[in-house]
Amino acid sequence: MSQPLGVHASIAGGIDRAISRGEAVGCTALQIFTKNASRWAASPLAEEAAAAFRRAWKASRIGPVYVHDSYLINLAAPDEEKWRKSQAAFLDEMRRCSALGVPGLVMHPGAHLGAGEEAGLRRIAVALRAVLAEAPPDVQILLETTAGMGSHLGWRFEQLARIMDLVPEHAFGVCFDTCHVFAAGYDLSDEAGYATVMDEFDRLIGCQRIRLFHLNDSKKPCGSRLDRHEHVGRGCIGETGFTCLMRDERFAGVAKIIETPPGEDHADDLRNLALLRRLAGES
Questions:
Q1: Which residues are annotated as a binding site for Zn(2+)?
Q2: What values do phi and psi take at 6, rounded to 5?
Q3: Where, in this chain's numbering, is Zn(2+) 2 bound (predicted)?
């Protein structure tokens, strides 16, 4: 059985068009934004648009679909106005997911901006509890592993575990980004390293929490804490690390998304997806 693989698809021209764009490159999974990810303001998601998306999805060969939240949201923000604005925007993202029938929302935990790690983690937890009090119950929050640039949190597995401990009422999932994890200092570029990293994740969080993978290679070396995506197999992780992941039976049914430039006529998307299928032993 083929693993659910896909890309982050554009919603330009209508959110339902992401489905056809994904199908055009052979996706069996998909990730989207529900609005412009670089702007606070967004028009409400019209019921007609949501219904068109659900129809297109149902009629397609695409299985799991996930939404990534706005890049502007920072639930660790020490500034009160930005923090409140982030909460409102994140709640809106969860409601949009529910309207689309999407079961999971991917989020970067946040940046403490000098307030300190523990203060930032607690700030995130308070914000999440406030959002969850009003959020639809059918959307799971997926905490994304980060590279650790600046004061961004979520680059150590312990930080994600801490958020989960502080908000026990929600069954969080995890979005495991290979580039971010590698840049954060977890070397999964060979078989021994991959096994060590996954054992550590399983001990601290539990591999069953992984609901989604972002499969990106890294332009920068392990431990650089720089978020620089590279096409699969062409960066510092290399094919061996991705082979380990693609052949790990624990994750055979977990959706895997690439987040690299599609290339002219989507040539790079097609190459990356074909390579991942080959590494999995599917072709």
A1: 68, 108, 144, 177, 180, 214, 227, 229, 259
A2: -170, -165
A3: 144, 177, 214, 259
Indicate the SS3 state at residue 130. Answer: helix
Number of neighbouring beta carbons within 10 Å of residue 149: 16
**Residue pLDDT, tens place only, 19-39:** 999 999 999 999 999 999 889
Which CATH number describes the domain made up of 5-264+272-279? Answer: 3.20.20.150
β-pair partners for 217: 230
Provide the pLDDT confidence category of residue 264 given band limits of 50, 70 and 90.
Answer: confident
Question: Residue positions in the annotated binding site?
Answer: 68, 108, 144, 177, 180, 214, 227, 229, 259
Contact 175, 205 (CB under 8 A): no
Q: Each residue of 122-148: b (16+ CB within 10 Å) or e?
A: bbbbbbbebbbeebeeebbbbbbbbbb
**pTM over cut 0.85:** yes
DSSP string, 169-203: TS--EEEEEHHHHHHTT---SSHHHHHHHHHHHHH
Which tens digits make up the pLDDT trace of 116-160? 999 999 999 999 999 999 999 999 999 999 999 999 999 999 999
